Amino acid sequence: MLRLQIKICARFLRGSLVAASLIAVTSGFIPSVAAQTAAPKLARSQAGFYRMTVGEFEVIALSDGTVPLPVFDLLTNIKPAEIQKFLSDAYVKAPLDTSVNAYLIKPAGNANKLIMVDAGSGELYGPTLNKLVANLKAVGYEPKQITDILLTHIHTDHSGGLMDEKRMIFANAVVHVDKREADYWLNPANRDTSKGDKEQLIRLFLEAAVKVKPYFDSGKVKTFVGDTQLFPGIRSIATPGHTPGHSFYALESKGEKIVFFGDIMHVAEVQFPNPEVTILFDSDSNVAAEQRKRAFADAARNGYLIAPAHVSFPGIGRLRAEGGGYRWIPIPYINDTY
Ligand SMILES: [Zn+2]
C-alpha cells in the first residue's frame, strides 16, 4: 500500500473533474512517507546535466532529481525473493534511488530550435525532484527558450513540470504528444472505465487536468498519430502499453541514432535482466512487457543508444543480450574540452 498523501493546491483544480474530496490523493510513483522524510544522502546538490553529440545534434541530459522507489511494492510478475536477488547482485537495496531524466535536443543548423523530451515532475513528487529548470538554466537556457516538448506520455513524472501553481513554465513551447495519449488522459470519463488502482487513476487524471490541459486549452498541444516524422531527424515511434499513447522518440543523424525510451522500464537492476517484470503504473502490463521485450531486442541487435527516463542519470547507454535478458552498458563519461 502506498501511503504518501499529496496535497494539490486548490488553485489548480478546474472543471467538473475535481471534487473537494479528491484534493488529497495517494501517489503511485512516489514512495512511502518514511522514504520521503529520510535525510538526503548528499549535503549539496549534484551536477545535473550531461552533454553529448549524436551526429550533428547536441543532446543534453537534464536531471529532475532522484526519488527512492519502494520497488517491492511496485514490481509485478516477480516474487519478492527474486527482486531481492537482483538488487543484491547490483549492490543496491529498496527503496531504490531512481532517476527522473529529461533530455534537451539542439538540432543541427537551427539555432532557434530547442526541443525537450519530457518535462520533469514539478512539485508533485516531493522535495528530491523538481530540479529540471535549475539544470536547464545551468546549461545556459531559460524555460521560455524551449520551442518544443516531446512527451513520451502524460504520467506526471514526465509532464508535471509543465506548470507551477500559477503559470506555464514553458510558455513558448508547443507540446507534442500522441493523440491517443491526449484523448485518454484529458477525458475524465476514461478514469472510471479503466482497470487498475482507483486511487492512482484518480490522482493521474487529476494531475493531467492540472498540468497538461492548460496547454491544450491554450492551443499549445499538437498531437500526432502513431509513427510520425516530427522534425528533420526526429520521429515518434508508437509504443502503447505502459500508457495508451506512449511514444518513443528516435533521433538519427550522420549514421548515429538515439531512441528516447520514456517509461519502457523503471527498475534497471531488475527489468534489464528480466524484461518480463512489470510495474503497477502500467495501463496494460502484458502489452507493456511485450513492447519492452521488442524494444530491448531491437536495441541490442542494432547497437544504437537508448535513453530510458528512469535509468541512473544521465540514463544513456546501450544493451547487450545476456543470459536470457540484457546487460546495460552506460555511455563513457567524456570531459575533454581544452
Ligand atoms: Zn509512466
Any idea of the CATH topology? Metallo-beta-lactamase, Chain A
Q: Report the strand count.
A: 18
Largest sheet: 7 strands, mixed
Which structural category fits the helices and strands? Answer: alpha+beta
CATH architecture: 4-Layer Sandwich
List unreliable stretches of 5+ residues: 1-28, 31-35
Number of helices: 11
Oligomerization category of the chains in this entry? single chain
What Rg is obtained from the alpha carbons, in whole angstroms? 19 Å
Estimate the strand proportion: 25-35%
Which kinds of small molecule does this entry bind, naming each only once?
A: zinc ion
In sequence order, what are the helices and strands, one letter per element? EEHEEHEHEEHEHEHHHHEEEEEHEHEEE
Strand order of the largest sheet: 3-4-6-7-8-9-10
CATH superfamily: Ribonuclease Z/Hydroxyacylglutathione hydrolase-like
| Structural shape | globular
Number of domains: 1
- What percent of the residues sit in helical stretches (DSSP H or I)? 10-25%
Which CATH top level class fits? Alpha Beta
Mean pLDDT value = 90
Distance between the termini: 52 Å
Polypeptide structure, described:
The chain is built from eleven helices and 18 strands. It has 338 residues and is an alpha+beta fold. The protein has a single domain (5-12, 47-330), classed as Ribonuclease Z/Hydroxyacylglutathione hydrolase-like (Metallo-beta-lactamase, Chain A). The longest helix is centred in the C-terminal third of the chain and has 18 residues, at 285-302. It is globular, with a radius of gyration of 19 Å. Residues 153, 155, 242, 263, 281 line the site of zinc ion (ZN).
